[in-house]
Amino acid sequence: STKIMVSLNDASVNGIAVQGHLKYYEDTVRHLQGDLALLDYYVPADFFVRVPLQPEISSLDIRFSFNTDFALSHGVLQVKSPLGLDMSGDFSVQTFPDYLRLNRVTLQSADTRLIGKGVFEKSGRLNGSLELENFDISQWVEIDKKTNVSGIILVEGNIENGQISSISVTTEIQDSGLYQGDVLSLSGSASY
Predict the structure, then answer these.
(1) Which one of 6, 34, 51, 59 is most buried, counting C-beta atoms within 10 A?
(2) Percent of the chain scoring above 70 in pLDDT
């Protein structure tokens, strides 16, 4: 039986500040457990460079605990931003030879629920969905007005060299917060 424990106090992984600890052990199966925090994380500035959408995404503090046998990973997470975002939930991810499947990620706050699932292939192809309930975009993206978005978003696309190279989004959402009292409905598709 092999056991390795690692404590991270002031580490950096690909320029991302990481704190926490990891525990690896082998018995009949390999296992990895961890409690990690990604502090002051920013989506890379060039991630959206090839598409017309250029959102000003806030920094995020992401904390998660997980357990994996390198085929199935599951755990809990918390996401916070300086804009007021404070959501927590759980996730489940399966790893296959040619793709990664997000079985589910659920994030909730007092008023909001976000559920995501999808597939990311090693070739860079991405396919997924997000279900939103009472979602305030202003807690993620630097905009002045609060929103109250509910609905579903379907996404297909490709990521090449860490950048979105193509994307197709189909939405059916409603917002009852942006125009105070009036409901804004949006359904349709956009591709780039």
Answers:
(1) 34
(2) 89
